[in-house]
Amino acid sequence: MKKYASNILIILFASSIVFHILVILGVFPMTIIWGGRITNRTELVQMETVSILINALFLAIVIIKAGLVKINVNQKALNSTLGFMAFIFALNTVGNLFAKSSIETMIFTPVTAISSVLCVWLIWGK
Known about the structure:
Blueprint: H1 2-24, H2 41-65, H3 75-97, H4 102-124
């Protein structure tokens, strides 16, 4: 189960990075992200850059937890980080429910909810 959880999370985080790059490039409108609250291009680039960096960090953590990269990391610290990620995704799920954009609510609410559950599976799953 951990293998499936890590593979799905790797796909989700990599896809999220690509998505945020496409938002910066204007392929997707800025109204479907950040609860529809971004008001200008400067704010968009700043917030999307933060999103890309966070997703890259989360991707690295999952890759390490999955054992795809051999780095000697304290497993308790890694599990604590995954627990924090699960908590953040759970909060983000609630936030997505109140987004101004129905697209954000319909698409990203399930994605963040699933991400939260998968992070927990990486910690406690078999």
